[in-house]
Amino acid sequence: MRITRKCTQEGVSPYADIDFRKSSCVIKNPDGSVVFEMKDIDVPATWSQVASDVLAQKYFRKAGVPVALKPVKEKDVPSWLWRQAPDVAKLDKMPTEKRYISETSATQVFDRLAGTWTYWGWKGGYFDAEDDAQAFFDEMRYQLSHQMGAPNSPQWFNTGLHWAYGIDGPAQGHSYVDFKTGELTKSASAYEHPQPHACFIQSVSDDLVNEGGIMDLWTREARLFKFGSGTGSNFSNVRGGGESLSGGGRSSGLMSFLKIGDRAAGAIKSGGTTRRAAKMVVVNIDHPDIEEYIDWKVVEEQKVAALVAGSKLAEKHLTAVLAACNNWDGAADSEDRFAPRQNPQLKEAVLAARAVMIPDSYINKIIEFARQGFTEISFKTYDTDWDSEAYLTVSGQNSNNSVRVSNEFLQAVLDNGNWDLIRRTDGKVSKTIAARELWDKVGEAAWACADPGIQYDSTINEWHTCPNSGRINASNPCSEYMFLDDTACNLASLNLMNFRSDDGGVDIEAYEHAVRLWTVVLEISVLMAQFPSDRIAELSYRYRTLGLGYANIGGLLMSMGISYDSDEGRAIGASLTAIMCGISYATSAEMAGEQGAFPGYGDNANEMLRVMRNHRRAAYGEQDGYEGLAINPVPLVAADSPYADLPVAARAAWDKALELGEKHGYRNAQTTVIAPTGTIGLVMDCDTTGIEPDFALVKFKKLAGGGYFKIINRTVPVALATLGYTENQIRDIEKYAVGHGTLVGSPSITHDDLKAKGFDDDAIAKVEGALKNAFDVKFVFNKYTFGDDFCINQLGLDAKQINSMDFDVLAALGFDRKQIELANTYVCGAMTLEQAPHLRDEDLSVFDCANPCGRIGKRYLSAESHIRMMAAAQPFISGAISKTINMPSSANIQDCKDAYMLSWRLGVKANALYRDGSKLSQPLSSALVEEDDYADQPTATKATAASQQIVEKIIERVIRGDRRSLPGRRKGYTQKATVGGHKVYLRTGEYEDGKLGEIFIDMHKEGAAFRSLMNNFAIAVSIGLQYGVPLEEYVEAFTFTRFEPSGMVSGNDAIKMSTSILDYMFRELAISYLGRNDLAHVQPSDILPDAVGEGVAEGDLGEAAKKSEDQAIETIRKVASSGFVRRNLYVVDGGAQTEERVVEVKSTGTDGHGHNHSHETTASATTTTATPSAPQTNAILTAGEEVSAKVDAKMDQIREARMKGYEGDGCPDCGNFTLVRNGTCLKCDSCGATTGCS
After folding, report:
1. Residue 911 and residue 443: Cα distance in Å, rounded?
2. How far apart are CA 890 and CA 144, in angstroms?
3. Most CB contacts within 10 A, which of 640, 727, 1100, 1209?
């Protein structure tokens, strides 16, 4: 082939016009811990920090790169293309640790990729002359370095390691077909033939253990998952439940095997680069088990909800039962306290537990625990976090599920006809069901849990280029690659934004040039590749399917000033897709003229040319005349395109593709798909992925040293300029969206307003310094900005209030909600263009995103707009399109069914819906972006409502003149530990209400004098506690005291180091009784927020008991602990009158009985609620400060992530809350991890 130069010059380096910079790559967890760090790497200066980080973390080879290399001479290969190998002689002279290093420069990666493609292309005879090979090498390096295109991740991982560095290893069981002889060959090494394919489709037969059967599939999948690829299979051949077996008996059914495969996939991937969704499960709509399959994930989500709600209710009620046994007013040694008939408090606790269906056996078990002397239980609770144990416990979480529907079934739905489910063993009818009933199930499941998706079997196979070789039964995990079973596809995508012309349109010549080159790259990749099984190697050689696509259509349309949801936008999308597919097929035909058509072409020539003619008709905008199609595609409407040259180029491309194909055939059975472009989209600095619209107008640009700052989406200023706005207007609109980062000029909360509230110049300077990168002004006005002394003494704020995570300093200073919101929008930006100054209403649609933007954003793209964009592109795609159809939480089941039906009518091949909030693990956008619903209500009403939403910490100080005696039989706990090698026993004694009243200290193997001294010190502390000296005073006085013995601490789960015995002792007391986890070295972990509803009716226990129940449930909903935490149980004082209720927090793990004492009590609370006093027996769970802080911190992170446009989940790789929906998968904008296979 002749390769022309478009971007480079002969004899000039392709990097000549690029400035490179030294960069340090740091990827951190939300807690600041480093996930990955690499210093002094060379990257192009124009690349963003995120792109540089992803390249370094994901794609740099981290080890095994020899410092010294030498060429390996090969006959008939130009010397500049000779592969490299370690120069052993030079390496032996170096220190061992310096012989092999990591890749440290982006050019190393570009060179090994482009070099390997050129090397194998030369060996395969794809270039007419050496100049063509050199031009190809240079052009591909240029395109990679300028982010014009990128191959899928396995290419970056594997391609070139052997050619560039001589890296090799033992064979991994792969195979390839020798391109010279056509013979199937087992790979002799791991890397000589790379494994560049991301997408696989594998068959599964109705056989248990033989090759090609069910259990064999799990092994084949494991080999793919290990190398970061994804796979899909159609399981419709597997017989249904109850069908006969050859040896007698009945089959356990399809679902039993799907659950096994799901757990196997989860186990393999959990240690790799993907968490889930790298597997597609497809089942035909006529399978006998289809109803159970459709409901599979719905039921599993219900199980998760039951685990979460049930575990927390069980913990609450069983703890109450235990407390009722221990809080007995009668004789301490009486057995009556364990008998519900004699112990009223126990009876009430048992009835309450039975009311929420706690099993009697568990209730009896807890009573027996109490009889044996236990005062605390640890009952494991679960949460709805997407990688939590609750989700790991259920099945169906490691795959995307799809149902294959035919035209006949959908017509039966429209006609309200019946549908037969067919047995797999004998082809007879297993069951007849109303088609609409089955269709309703599909819609309900998609609405409830976003699965299953739909694949339109008839449409897919009517566009099949090789129907004589078999049907298309399945797809890869992301649904864009659809072809024969046991085939593979390697993907690449072009960044459309980098093909913009000077006039704002598209540089068609450059675009076509890139399409041609990347088609050659993908074809060469088939030639050089090895495959995980013999069958896949054979069929990939026979059909040579490719997957060229694009990214950034959303960004391109916005930069043109054209709405994603518009006829113009769809015409541009259709034209660009048609050009890409037409030129790619034309290139394939050109290669067929030199290399020959793919081996399977002869059997399918007529059918493939029929498909090509249908593509061409759609490019010409024809409404009818299509061959072999039941549903006509959506044709390209040239008149709708604002750029007349695009439809012209599209028609010319298909003229050429058909003409050359009729003459030479085609080298490839398929050439194009539209993939999610997750990680590679980040490497190319794409604003949008695949065919998706943008997800946010304000982005958070990563800084080289860590941290982020807000910037407007780079396409927004371009779009505004295109729409005719002036520079000053654009600047004002940008400031409105991003914020001014200062209170200077603010319409509210000005510097003068702050000075009137007590702020001095120094404090205002601190505010201004913190506002520059603030996400919300409330995050700036806190004790961490000003210090405790200033907040308390200068601003007059309460010392305890400022420590509360939900305390609003601005509101406490008298600013109302509207003032705060005005200042917030001015300083931090609206993160939307709605209500922006100067912006015309008719231009708003240009900036619509997949979800509402910012705090006040209301606009978003409809589900129909997503589907119609897919329909515009689908007629020009060999495979399909990976895309999520976003739907708001308000969408109903009928909306889901309508979306599926519209997709079918428009000729789309597959559809995956995602309704906001359909997953337990993903909180509702609407619930997280709304401000305080009670802000404008009266204070008393606001306090009452807020008390049901938050968990407070209130420290109570009691002032007495008399010594308070401890009960004769008292509760407490013993903590054994070793401090600096000396055993220490700390024993506590408590009052009935759980307050600390005495301590005992005993030392083992210590001198008699020191042991006695510590014993007497404990007595002195105990007397002080009984006279009302607050424990806090002792903690402040004695923590951090330093004397021997000191050092390492063992035996205590929270404290690992102490400076003295007293330091250890008061740390332990502070953690257990005051919730002072800041003094612990091991913090409570896995405490996550969950919403589990309002609970279940608990019988006629009285209004006060129900109110206590509600408060307990609200607390449990706020706190989700997946590990052990010190329990916080308190019995509210009795009394009939309405009084201000003060809830005290303890972390003792024990429960006390409340009494009315006539002592003076002073308390400070974030929110004090006026409620009727509960009876003495009512138990309320409260949480310590650390628990609340972690919950609030997690909720803040989720809230902030959702307002930024992210999904609200934590990344399974780096933990950051920067996951965005990407096709049918998720990708992380921080580290580049993806839950798919691209």
Report:
1. 12
2. 43
3. 1209
> In the 8-state DSSP scheme, what is residue 881?
B
Cis peptide before 1212 (omega within 30 of 0): no
Catalytic residue among 7, 25, 199, 478: 478
Q: Which of 284, 476, 1052, 1222 is catalytic?
A: 476
pLDDT for 805: 64
pTM above 0.70, yes or no: yes
pLDDT of residue 225: 80
Q: What is the pLDDT of residues 469-513, one digit of tens each?
A: 999 999 999 899 999 999 999 999 999 999 999 888 999 999 999
Q: Which two tokens stand for residue 174?
A: 């792969």
CA–CA separation, 806 vs 778, rounded Å? 10
Q: Using omega within 30 degrees of 0 as the cis cutoff, is the peptide bond preceding 1045 cis?
A: yes
- Report how far Cα 676 is from the mean position of its chain's Cα atoms: 15
Would you tell me how many other CB atoms lie within 10 Å of the CB of residue 10? 9
3-class SS of residue 292: helix
C-alpha–C-alpha distance, residues 612 and 574, integer Å: 16
- C-alpha 1079/C-alpha 592 separation (Å) is 72
Each residue of 1089-1122: pLDDT tens digit?
333 333 333 344 455 544 554 554 444 434 432 2
DSSP state of 819: H
Distances 319 to 116, 314, 668, 1129 between C-alpha atoms, Å: 65, 8, 67, 8
Between CA 780 and CA 670 the distance in angstroms is 55
Ranges of the chain with pLDDT below 50: 270-277, 923-960, 1084-1101, 1105-1106, 1109, 1112-1189, 1191
The H or E element spanning position 297 is helix 296-326
- With b for 16 or more beta-carbon neighbours within 10 A and e for fewer, the 54-90 pattern comes to bbbbbbbbeebbbeebeeeeeeeeeeebebbbbbeee
Which residue, among 516, 488, 547, 558, has the nearest Cα to 176 in the 3D structure?
488
| Residues in the chain, overall count | 1238
User: What pLDDT was estimated at residue 203?
Assistant: 95
Which residues contact residue 442 at a Cβ distance below 8 angstroms, ignoring those fewer than 6 apart? 294, 403, 452, 454, 897, 900
Q: Which residue is catalytic, options 192, 315, 480, 952?
A: 480
Output the CA–CA distances (angstroms, integers) from residue 1221 to 249, 396, 682, 691, 1235, in the order listed.
45, 19, 13, 12, 10
Q: Is 668 a catalytic site residue?
A: no
Rounded Cα distance between 108 and 120, Å, is: 18
Residue 1008 neighbours by CB distance under 10 Å: 8
Which residues lie closer than 8 Å to 160 by C-beta, 6 or more apart?
111, 112, 113, 115, 116, 194
Q: Are 950 and 1118 in contact (CB under 8 A)?
A: yes
- Please give the pLDDT value at position 43: 95
CA 793 to chain centroid, in Å, comes to 44
Task: Determine contact, residues 1232/1213, Cβ cutoff 8 Å.
Answer: no
Radius of gyration in angstroms for the set of CA atoms belonging to the chain, rounded to a whole number: 34
Question: Alpha-carbon distance 222 to 206, whole Å?
Answer: 20
| 7 has catalytic annotation | no
Q: How far apart are CA 1210 and CA 1089, in angstroms?
A: 13
Q: What are the residues whose beta carbons fall under 8 Å from the beta carbon of 1104, sequence distance 6 or more?
A: 1172, 1173, 1174, 1175, 1178
The strand order across the sheet containing 1057-1058 reads 996-1004, 982-990, 974-979, 1047-1050, 1057-1058
- 480 given a catalytic annotation: yes
In contact, 124 and 179? CB cutoff 8 Å: yes
CA-to-CA distance for 1052 and 1183, rounded, in angstroms? 21
Residue with tokens 């008399």: 962
User: Residue 1212: what pLDDT?
Assistant: 67
Q: Other CB atoms closer than 10 Å to residue 480's CB: what's the count?
A: 32
* The pair of three-digit structure tokens given for residue 773, joined into one six-digit string: 């990168």
Please list, in sequence order, all residues whose beta carbon lies within 8 angstroms of the beta carbon of residue 13, skipping any fewer than 6 positions away. none
